[in-house]
Specification:
The chain has helices spanning 15-37, 40-45, 47-55, 59-71, 78-106, 111-116, 125-132, 137-154, 159-175, 183-193, 203-222, 227-251, 253-256, 265-288, 293-302, 305-323, 330-374. The chain is mainly α. It has one domain (15-374).
Amino acid sequence: MKNQIHPMQPQNRIRAIDLARGISVLMVIIVHTLWIYGDTATQSETWLGKAIHLIGKGTPMFLIAMGVSFTLSRNQSIVLSIKRAFYILGIGYLMNFLKFVLPALIGTVPDSFIEAYGWTAPATLDNMIYMLGTGDILQLAGVSLLFMGVINKFSKNKYVPLIIAFFVAIVTKEISGLRLGIGGADYILDLMWGAKWNVYFAVFPWFSFILIGMFFGMWYKEKRNSTRHLFNKMGIAGIILMLVGGGLCYYNFEYHFGDYFHLGPGGVFYLAGFNLIIMWLTNILVTRVKENIVFEFFYYCSKRVTTIYLIQWVLICWGMGVLGYQQFEVNGVLWLISFYILLTLIVQKLVLDRLFLSKNKHVSLAKKQVAIQKT
């Protein structure tokens, strides 16, 4: 299992992008811990709940970084994009099995969690199939890679992904929730533009953020890898998009922003702008502050985005079997956030890193043996 959600290893790493991605994946642990363990009052009425919900608005930064990284990859062939897409999709559904279906099969899922879906405990086979098909950010990333490969194959013009991004942002709300009434086909359509809670990150409109990242990545390459140009333009674009998106959300919040997961055009523009400004600020940080242990820690996390995301969700969901569902107030949630960040990093470092290291050693040894045999 590879460690990065972005499709291939970039040939020219951008420190600010790596830092932003590393921070964002740890922020995810904070958000998910609140969702699963914080009681209703803690989530909606406390300073912690409000602060973490603000942190949750940083998801598009993760997607913009994915788009930038794709354009900097050594190999952007459509075949490799397709392989990587199915790889990420496989991890996504494996994660759903581990965090939902396995605990349901062994009976450790709290009744209150099952009832939160509107079901009657214990979970039935149909309930488990529903949970297995949950559309999370890995499903979004996997399907998006298919489209990214096609776009990159047929056009190298940086404005193509930008135009598609705006088109997707503007049009999606009008077709959101469209279904044909045919089981399997409806699930695919839900992944594309679903309006229900079986899919949290529908490809459209969330693909817009990745496309915006592709636009800036192509622009960066055109300007001969000038990070100053890249992030200055990100900052300017971010201000414009925030103003436009914020105005639209103010005009009609329900349509343009709604419940956050099912965004309208104003919500897409606002969040894109907000996260572009954050990335601009991140670049100022890495430019003015010397390399240090904190930066190195976030770079470490950035290189292991996919596996950290998988680990944290599985551990948090497994923990419900012992700790219950949405049972904790502020102090309890704070302790659990620290616990799950630490536990996730321990599993990553002591289990997966060693597994990958061992695998790489075997591959390297095999290559050396082949080379010896040829001499």
